[in-house]
Design goal:
- The structure holds 2 protein chains of 2 kinds.
- Chain A has strands at residues 3-7, 10-14, 19-26, 30-38, 45-50, 56-59, 62-66, 70-75, 84-92, 98-99, 103-108.
- Chain A is built from no helices and 11 strands.
- Chain A is an all-beta fold.
- In chain A, the strands form 2 sheets. In chain A, strands 2, 4, 5, 9, 10 and 11 form a 6-stranded mixed β-sheet that branches. A 5-stranded antiparallel β-sheet of chain A has the order 1-3-8-7-6, with no helix packed on it.
- Chain B starts with a strand and ends with a strand.
- Chain B is mainly beta.
- Classes of the chains: A mainly beta, B mainly beta.
């Protein structure tokens, strides 16, 4: 059974204080690892897909990396508008996405 | 290109009533997924559909819950005889070929 564990559960940063969020996964044949952002009361917003170890994707202050066992979402010089819950999900085969519980990020001005 | 559309955004039902949640996927997307989210919990998979077919319903309770994605029209998640434990946010997502999924804004169901 596919499993995703995200850490930490919550993270509080000062504006400009860079950090990383972790997503550890167990799957039988990874077909994609996905990062989403979710704001309160909203649906998850797609950020990145990573397919193979060593792959990296960037978008503004966010950079996602992938190894054979985990993925990191690096946030460089975060701003208050980066505050949200960040969700990680995996897919193996033709299965639906399996999500972790997310990391709740708060960036304080 | 409109995103995934869900309606209603908020739904209040009394115990024992039926709830119907609608989802129109993005244009060109033939794969639809329904997820449920409770406060402080992750997104839990319920059912995966393609046009006129249920592909995987392993996450959906056998009793009271059903889903369809007809040839024409939106996907429908139906919950019969709702109970307080059904109160949650229900999200629909669509994808073109089983790759990344794009989510709607959800329907928040409250059972009173």
């Amino acid at each position: 059974e596919d499993q995703v564990t995200q850490s930490p559960e919550a993270l509080r940063l000062q504006e400009g204080e860079s950090s990383s969020l972790n997503c550890s996964y167990t799957v039988s044949g990874l077909r994609g690892l996905f990062w989403y952002r979710q704001d309160p009361g909203k649906g998850p917003e797609f950020l990145f897909t990573l397919y193979s170890a060593g792959e990296e994707k960037e978008k503004e202050r966010l950079k996602a990396t992938l190894t054979k066992k985990e993925s990191f979402l690096h946030i460089t010089a975060p701003k208050p508008e980066d505050s949200a819950t960040y969700l990680c999900a995996v897919r193996s085969g033709n299965t639906p996405l399996v999500f972790g519980k997310g990391t709740r990020l708060s960036v304080i001005a | 290109n409109a995103g995934v559309m869900q309606n209603p955004r908020h739904l209040v039902r009394r115990r024992g009533q039926e709830a119907r949640l609608r989802c129109s996927p993005m244009k060109g997307h033939s794969h639809v997924y329904w997820y449920r989210q409770l406060p402080e919990e992750g997104l839990k998979f319920m059912v995966y559909l393609q046009k006129e077919n249920i592909i995987d319903e392993s996450g959906m309770p056998k009793e009271r819950f059903s889903a369809e994605f007809p040839k024409e029209g939106p996907s429908i998640l139906r919950i019969q005889q709702v109970v307080r434990g059904d109160s949650a946010a229900y999200f629909c997502a669509s994808s073109p070929q089983g790759s990344e999924a794009f989510f709607g804004q959800g329907t928040r169901l409250t059972v009173v």
